[in-house]
Design goal:
The chain has 177 residues and is mainly α. It has 7 helices and 3 strands; from the N terminus they run αβααββαααα. It has a 3-stranded antiparallel β-sheet. The N and C termini lie far apart (49 Å).
């Protein structure tokens, strides 16, 4: 796929996620975990065959991993978690928007920094930076959600007419031990 089309698709998805989360939406464990894991897995697959590991490539990858997960965790910490209808919901705040803006600026800085130090394009997949950022957010929101004691939403069960949640059941069993 053409890089410009990938960029447009990524921007559209980010805007959609931001709009949905500013309105407030249920926190579903599957929605938190699956997208970042898929994006990170795609990136690992892409990097798997790469065999030109220079100091610049390793340094860039290490910094981008740290920055991606770090900004994601900051974003997750800036999200408001609340109970609605008996399940955990989340809402982005102005602080979250500021973190998004700072993370996009940091990504741009990393892009130019990578070029300056000679890091190759192969170690800079956009799927990795987005996946790591979403992973950091999922870790923070997921942890905060578990600590709140409010059951996570289970959209699949709700759509099927059931109000049971596999994650909630697992969390309850862990808490009982």
């Amino acid at each position: 796929m053409h890089p410009a089309l990938i960029a447009i698709a990524v921007i559209a998805i980010i805007v959609l996620v931001i709009v949905r989360r500013f309105r407030g939406e249920p926190v579903d464990a599957k929605d938190l975990a699956v997208p970042p894991l898929i994006l990170v897995a795609i990136s690992i697959k892409d990097l798997w065959g790469f065999n030109h590991w220079t100091a610049a490539n390793i340094a860039f990858l290490a910094v981008s991993i740290t920055v991606g997960v770090g900004f994601g965790m900051l974003r997750g910490a800036s999200t408001v978690l609340f109970e609605k209808g008996g399940t955990l919901h989340q809402r982005y705040t102005v602080k979250t928007l500021v973190v998004w803006a700072l993370s996009l600026a940091a990504s741009a800085g990393l892009h130019f920094g990578a070029q300056a130090i000679g890091a190759e394009e192969a170690v800079r997949p956009i799927t990795l930076s987005i996946g790591l950022s979403l992973l950091g957010e999922a870790i923070t929101c997921g942890w905060r959600g578990l600590q709140s004691g409010i059951p996570f939403s289970n959209r699949d069960a709700e759509q099927a007419g059931s109000d049971s949640s596999a994650l909630t059941g697992l969390v309850d069993r862990v808490r009982q031990r």
